[in-house]
Write a structure and sequence with these properties.
single chain; Immunoglobulin-like; 2 domains; mainly beta; 155 residues
Length: 155
């Protein structure tokens, strides 16, 4: 198995371990299942997103959606068919899958919907009030607060 060293690339970054681990994971992904099932990521409106997965052949009961540590996981598991079917051509994919999506900061799963073989997971960005930008008023009287906020000096 190939192992690539990213340390020289990410040395100046504070979170270099996370980036290197993420790139290692991409390189070690099982390529046979990498593109299955196909999906779209859509910006629905401001701070509203949707991930749509083509899961034809799966019923809602055979699908599982979970989030843990900022990772959204969608799984599809079909029970093994007891019959021994003889296909002349088998082009309809019906294998089990597990698809993972890394969620950005403050992204929450708002719900999911299944219709016509498409599973849509709705996402919302909710930034806490304390982290939102706020406007600081400027005192036009010329008063400046010192670092300990106990002393006021006039300019």
């Amino acid at each position: 198995m190939m192992r690539v060293e990213y340390t020289p690339i990410y040395r100046p970054n504070l979170a270099s371990g996370q980036w290197a681990a993420m790139l290692d994971g991409i390189l070690q992904t099982d390529r046979a299942n990498y593109d299955y099932p196909p999906y779209d990521i859509e910006l629905v409106e401001d701070k509203q997103y949707a991930i749509s997965l083509a899961v034809a052949g799966f019923s809602p009961e055979q699908l599982t959606i979970e989030t843990e540590n900022k990772v959204l996981t969608v799984k599809g598991e079909k029970p093994r068919a007891g019959d021994k079917r003889h296909f002349l051509h088998e082009g309809i994919v019906s294998r089990n899958f597990e698809r993972r999506f890394n969620l950005a900061e403050h992204i929450e799963v708002a719900g999911a919907h299944y219709r016509d073989g498409i599973l849509t997971v709705r996402l919302t960005k909710r930034v806490p009030e304390a982290m939102k930008p706020r406007r600081i008023e400027i005192d036009s009287a010329g008063q400046v607060l010192s670092h300990d906020a106990a002393e006021v000096s006039v300019v």
